[in-house]
Amino acid sequence: MNAAQQDSLNDLRLKRILQLNERLKEELNRERIHSSEAAEALINYAQETRDYAVSCVWGPLQSEYDPFLKQGTSGKTHGKLHGAENTGCCVIC
Amino acid sequence: MLKTVREECEALRTQIVAVKSSLFDITLPDAARQVKPITDFRLKQQHTLRGHRGKVYSCEFSHDNKLLASVAQDGFIIIWDVYTSNKVDVIPLANSWVLTCTYSPSGRFVASGGLDNACTVYRVNTASHASGNPRALCTFKGHAGYVSACKFRGENQVITSSGDLTCMLWDVNSGKKLQEFIGHLGAINSISINPQNSHIFSSSSCDGMVKLWDIRTNNCIQNFASHQDDVNSVEFFPDGNAIGTGSDDTTCRLFDLRADCQLSIFTSPNTVSGVSSISFSRSGRLLFAGYENGECQVWDVLRGDRVSCLNEHSSKVSNVTVSSDGICISTASWDSTIKIWSTT
Fold first, then answer.
1. Which residue of B has its CA nearest to A60?
2. Would you call B2 and A17 a contact, using CB atoms and an 8 Å cutoff?
3. For residue range B73-82, what is the model confidence (pLDDT) as tens digits?
4. Predicted model pTM
5. How far, in Å, CA of B246 to CA of B257, rounded?
6. Range of the domain at A3
7. Closest residue of chain A to B6, computed from CA coordinates
8. What's the CA gap between A84 and A50, in Å, rounded?
9. ipTM of this predicted complex?
10. How many domains does chain A have?
11. How does residue B131 score in pLDDT terms, banded at 50, 70 and 90?
């Protein structure tokens, strides 16, 4: 590699590191909140949003809103219930 | 000069680490100690959808949650009635080596992509098909590697991710590429559009990174680099302020965008299989994770506990999806079946 090629390579390296530094400065100046604040917001959202998959909080889906019951197909194919593993409450209905 | 800027680079990295650690004062499970654990968790297996003659790679609920589109390596997209398990439509694909499919918001189109390095949009409307219109509406060609994931952004745009290390934004009407997102150092496996802000999407990659992209500026705006192996799946938390990930390192993780850090990790000593797909329940309280060994584990996102394990597939669970109303969960598998679970 001759001197001109070496200079050109160094210029390219310099340009890339300068670009990287600009990105790192942006990242450093990013507005951040404490993880405790973020965790609290996620906890509030998860607890305040209706979710029938969490029946211990929101109760079971009422039968009039059950789309499978409306079609008359609920559990027709298999009808297995999977329960929480710590209670071992799987049943075949 | 080169030495000076390198030193400045190192100093900046050190400062970023210092700022992040000063703001990291608690993990999510520690913050949620007072939250009651989930008890009496139950899912009913409503249907086993049989019809594909190959590994099912992907499925997605329509936006009204009544239909499910699935794609398998038998070369077909099948549209299923979720509640009756009937097949509503079958779309033969030009290329059978498909990896992904997605529904448009109106339900009129599905898009799929795979090893032909292209993403094709198909009409779902059967009346239109009967009238002689071709099924394929347009094909996006431009990736130099397989298309691993695709998502509609509104009705007129599609975002794709690829093994060529890039994501691309496409226009459905013209079939042309609008933007390209370059930055990953490994094949990209999964993408997710922020449910609260469609200008932002995330991508996960074999380089172990998860990146956030802003379509308005065409730039990567945030990186998360905690995983030790390929990150196979990424999905936004329902409020759009965090993202969940699943990886070959056998863990799922939760990263908060505002705190710019990892808030939680979901794994157990018994978990030895890689995570292929994840999906949040409607509130984000539960994380459903499909594993290479055929299990679908259910995690309490707040407390970090494992709540349940659905173990009904005989091969890898390639895709887990929760319907937007939160009532149905689908698990698609390489055993060529899809199972529909309900909270009722």
1. B344
2. yes
3. 999 999 999 9
4. 0.91
5. 17
6. 1-31
7. A17
8. 20
9. 0.93
10. 1
11. low
